């Protein structure tokens, strides 16, 4: 005897499925409806991601050799202010969109100078979507561009331009200022963590030697400035600052291969644990990657070659393994 099995879910009253049921969302609407797809979450981590994405644009200018200073300010009203002395976002009309290049970058997904490899050899963040995502997730955003002797400005509300790009003054230098307020409907009341943001900005300064990053929280009256002439070498010294090191100066290696710059800085301490951090385009690759695997393999091979060459290992003795050579190691790998 068989028994009828009820359906797992109740059927919809309307069994019709037509072309009208398929929604096509524009870039801005898609971002606002599913922000987690672009910035990971809408909690404090997502809020911080908005700051990082704007700073990444300034970092790209620094990595291109066109920016020496970045100022990041959390204003008393919760707005975020990011200024750099780079080349400034172009304001000419873009041939593909028939709007200014500035508006195109701020409102169009996958619009930017990071794809062809001509303007930026390397870049970080959400390539070509970072600024437009931040704009779409902000209740208000203003861009000021200093370029060609003029000061340009454009404001947006929830990613929609309030007006055309206009000239609001003169400028004696170049650069970009972006000020935005994260949308409370999406993130709730903005609560930025000064310590978390400052540590990330410190990392960026270490990875871009001789770049000055000033960070201020006006509400908490906190301020820090980061500038490191040693770059990744200074980073290693910072990580080993409370440890007894085995050699005074960190070992620094740098090489350019097919326009890719590879940097490694390492120093041994009296501990047993390994502290190796890897970065790609200034973004921490917490899950590792081929750059980290290659470094570890090369380090083990170098130790074994040296040990055999100097008769420290006999022919019948097994080679050193990775755990042997990485004990007490502090290293930074950046590509």
TrEMBL record:
It catalyses: ATP-dependent breakage, passage and rejoining of double-stranded DNA. One of its GO terms (biological process) is DNA topological change. SMART domains: HATPase_c, TOP2c. SUPFAM superfamilies: ATPase domain of HSP90 chaperone/DNA topoisomerase II/histidine kinase, Ribosomal protein S5 domain 2-like. It comes from marine sediment metagenome. Its cofactor is Mg(2+). Keywords: ATP-binding, DNA-binding, Isomerase, Nucleotide-binding, Topoisomerase. Residues 42-186 form the Histidine kinase/HSP90-like ATPase domain. This is DNA topoisomerase (ATP-hydrolyzing). Its EC number is 5.6.2.2. GO terms for molecular function: ATP binding; DNA binding; DNA topoisomerase type II (double strand cut, ATP-hydrolyzing) activity.
